[in-house]
Design goal:
Order of helices and strands: EHEEHEHEEEE
Distance between the termini: 26 Å
Radius of gyration: 15 Å
CATH topology: Cytidine Deaminase, domain 2
Bound molecules: zinc ion
Strand content: 25-35%
Number of strands: 8
CATH superfamily: Cytidine Deaminase, domain 2
Number of domains: 1
Number of helices: 3
Length: 171
């Protein structure tokens, strides 16, 4: 079963971050999300997927590393997942097939030409899956925007992100 990050998790390893950001995301994950969003936009479809990686904690709180962006079916040719908030469960099920240890640290979805924000429905989707934790990346391939939000007591709030080069991952 996929493990979804939440604040009550007792097994969060301690590791001090070098840069004060909430989410450290790999170039590969960024490029997969943008590619997915662009393919969807070409068909006028919003798309969604999940971010998997690891959760850490330090004296400033919880932060996450996202290594991979995955979508339903987890096959490169299934690029056009039509956006439907009920798909979240289907995505979680699809992750059962992954054969490595991972934590779902968040999700992403695209907007087409309206900019990056969390709609009321987006906030509800986030809260029902992640509660007050987890990350939501919103991509608008038409406006060429990308923003990241994190779960909070108020639903979601904008978060800070650092992109890490995929081949120079720190151990
Ligand atoms: Zn949205």
């Amino acid at each position: 079963m996929p493990r979804i990050t939440h604040h009550g998790d007792q097994n969060i390893p301690e590791r001090k971050r070098m840069v004060n950001a909430d989410l450290f995301i790999s170039e590969a994950a960024i490029s997969d999300m943008i590619g997915h969003a662009e393919k969807g936009a070409a068909e006028n479809s919003e798309v969604m997927g999940l971010l998997v990686g690891r959760i850490y904690g330090d004296d400033k709180g919880i932060y996450a590393e996202a290594d991979k962006a995955v979508t339903a079916g987890l096959h490169a040719d299934e690029v056009s997942v039509r956006f439907d908030h009920s798909d979240m469960t289907r995505l979680f099920d699809a992750l059962d097939d992954l054969d490595f240890e991972y934590v779902i640290v968040g999700w992403y979805h695209s907007h087409i030409g309206i900019g990056c924000f969390m709609s009321e429905t987006d906030v509800q989707t986030h809260s029902s899956a992640f509660g007050e934790s987890g990350f939501a990346v919103v991509i608008d391939p038409v406006k060429e925007e990308l923003k990241v939000f994190k779960g909070s007591v108020n639903g979601t709030e904008e978060a800070s992100m650092v992109v890490k080069e995929s081949h120079t991952q720190m151990a």
